[in-house]
Amino acid sequence: MSTLKPPLDRDDHLRGPSSAPIQLVEFGDYECPYCGQAHRTIAALRAALGDRLGFAFRHFPLVGAHPHAELAAEAAEAAGAQGKFWDMHDLLYGDQRALSLPHLERHARALGLDMQRFADDLRSHRHLGKIRADVHSGAISGVGGTPTFFINGRRHDGAHDFDSLLAALTLDPTERLQAHG
Amino acid sequence: MQRSTILQPGVEAPDFTLKATPDQAVSLSDFRGRPIVLAFYPADWSPVCGDQMSVYNQILDEFRTHDAQLLAISTDGVWCHLAFARDRRLGFPLLADFEPKGAVGRAYGAYDDKEGVCERALFVIDGDGRIAWSYLSPSGVNPGADGILAALERLRPDEPRQTRPRQQETHP
Questions:
Q1: Predicted confidence (pLDDT) at residue A72 exceeds the cutoff of 70
Q2: HEC states along A54-65?
Q3: Contact check, Cβ <8 Å, A139/B146
Q4: Smallest Cβ distance to B55: which of A127, A145, A157?
Q5: Does residue B168 surpass a pLDDT of 50?
Q6: Which residue from A111, A125, B48, B117 puts its CA 20 to 30 A from A85's CA?
């Protein structure tokens, strides 16, 4: 069985409480249309599950198929360094056709980022190490495509639509244990 | 559903020669002395964009760390493979198990007779040409590389383990 390695830690971007009984981790790519669909599904799941769900995102840019994906991931991390990871994440998935450098800079301006620092981070690839660490994590965890989800540390091999994910999230044994405990 | 029975660890890996490009053939025995990763898959142009081959391409460095050569095999012809590899910018050979169709897939027990395609089956072959690990993925599931990487790790227990920090150096 494929499991998440390493487990969630402080380096991860987390939405929702870290103590949430259900932890959903996505390995995703900003240029992948299936990840774009998943982004909308996850928003709906977060609304449905509230504080029961913690959601984390790790980067898995497929640079061969998606030439803009890695720079977009760097932009998300550069925004994260200024406390705006999820804002940038939402903007990137908001328009997946707008991922070239001028678009990324427009997003950064819209978020009120320190533009000098943002540009320096992209130019020096300051956050590429973090992205590569995420890809390594995906490799040893059994990522087989994008998006790949892990629910409470175990790979989810089912479908990615709202109903399938909701069923998997709420039927996970750990969660069931919590519910009955 | 009847699933095929793939070759198991300890068995000598059947040698084969398949076309990698219209004018270039590759034999398993060409790679003696190095670990080989054989990835059988059903077809090029998977409807899922983030497919298994794109993932393996993204993590080729992980295989290189083990000096392992990745060879992917499907029943698609060489021209199809060429177009697919160009489109996804794949940096490893796609071999055409095209004529006689599926012969290599059958030799490894990784051929789906009903669908007429290779199954998603993975093999790690050691430098002596023996199967060290094999895995048949459940239908419809893209296998990741976790099992492959763990098997490659086990192939060289005497060498110091490659430990990679969660946070790597930045690359200026």
A1: yes
A2: EEEEEECCCCCC
A3: yes
A4: A145
A5: no
A6: B48
- What are the residue ranges spanned by the domains of chain B? 39-155
- DSSP count for chain B of H helices, then E strands: 5, 9
Predicted ipTM? 0.87
pLDDT in tens, B113-143: 999 999 999 999 999 999 999 999 987 888 9
Contacts 24+ apart (CB under 8 A), A170-175: A170/A22, A170/A49, A172/A22, A174/A21, A175/A21, A175/A22, A175/A52
B1-40 pLDDT tens trace? 456 699 999 999 999 999 999 999 999 999 999 999 999 9
Q: CA B55, CA A118: separation in Å to the nearest integer?
A: 29
Q: Any idea which fold B39-155 has? A: Glutaredoxin (3.40.30)
What residue segments make up the domains of chain A, in order of their start? 23-180
CATH code assigned to A23-180: 3.40.30.10
